[in-house]
Design brief:
The chain has 388 residues and is of the alpha/beta class. Helix content is 46%, strand content 16%. It contains 14 helices and 13 strands. A hairpin with an 8-residue loop joins strand 1 and strand 2. The structure holds nicotinamide-adenine-dinucleotide and zinc ion (ZN).
Amino acid sequence: MQAREEATAMPDCGVIRVAMTAAAEAYDVHVGADVLDRLPAMLRQAAPAFRYAVISDDHVAHLYGSELIRCLREDSLTVDLFTFPSGEANKTRETWSALTDAILGAGVGRDACIIGLGGGVTGDVAGFVAATYMRGIPVVHVPTSLLAMLDASVGGKTGVDVDAGKNLVGAFIQPRVVLADTTVLRTLSDSDFRAGLAEAVKHGFIADLRHLEWIERHGRDILERDPGHLVELVRTSVAIKAAIVTEDPFEIGRRATLNFGHTIGHALERVSRYSIPHGYAVAAGMVVECRIGEILGVSAPDTASRLLAVLYSLGIPVMLPDVVDDVVEATRSDKKGRASSVRYALVARPGQGARTGAGGWTFEVQPEVVRTALRAALVALSQENTGV
Ligand SMILES: NC(=O)c1ccc[n+]([C@@H]2O[C@H](COP(=O)([O-])OP(=O)(O)OC[C@H]3O[C@@H](n4cnc5c(N)ncnc54)[C@H](O)[C@@H]3O)[C@@H](O)[C@H]2O)c1
Ligand SMILES: [Zn+2]
């Protein structure tokens, strides 16, 4: 990766340890600018393998694939690149099987390691290929979108979307190491950049008021993609997510807070046939789920208005299609629903996830409450848009 010309002071590559309960599963997330050339050394140390299979979507492969391959080959590592068409619409079993067949066809054996180079879609697909390839081989993530750097590459969730819903087929597989080189974010579209910011706002809302306030204060530097601010943003979000998944790797308790905004968000993705990007769907989902919390008396009043303010200040659009019943219906097949009830991760106030009286992290919410919240959010948004 080429060095940026800005003279901003750049912190060195920082490391966040994702401890996990089993020592074998602990791994490091390295975040820094211009650090991609450290990958070969990291692979030798954390994921030694006879052969490496890089999985990337065609867009990212075009931008960074050959550079990565050259970097690994210069270090005498054996590596091949496998690509698939970019986009959420391709996060499918078909892509998983086509990649798996291609890697099998290339004669890659059990002594190999998968490297996911790309956004969250690539990470989810690459991780799922690794989890199932010859019953499981190691995976390393090299996230290239903001969303993948600060959220998707950490925590070990992988999978694909199916007709019945998003991420409904998949596996947990923790990566051996994660390397996030924030320099590559310079080529990310504004839309994808803002989508990633939505997950950073989520981290602030569910767990860390100081992170939220930092984002609120530094919005302009973040949007200008100032290198130092990007590194700081990604590191803090990763540290927040790492702490949560370390405590609860398989989502028995607190990890559910990371689903804040996602029950509605996944439904919005589905009803829009994945035309609303994940980050934007989560943004709108958080707004609706704040309203749900306010209606139930779980979230402090004005939680939704603070969320809207920070989303607008970062230029994150809140896209809420006016199809209330379809959205409610789509929430029913989200995997967060247990039996026939649909459960929501809510916030008590900005910076703090909400607990139930029994100490749980999710709330059963009746469809009528969801409808009311959706309608209230639609009204609030239309007033914003018409300047009322
Ligand atoms: N596993 C998890 O824990 C987890 C967490 C959050 C989100 N996700 C998943 O992540 C996905 C969303 O991730 P996403 O927003 O990164 O989507 P994405 O992977 O589709 O990337 C968005 C777009 O950005 C492009 N891109 C990526 N890096 C680039 C770069 N450096 N320069 C230019 N273009 C670049 C990609 O080619 C793609 O077109 C969703 O499927 C979501 O479910 C998973
Ligand atoms: Zn998400």
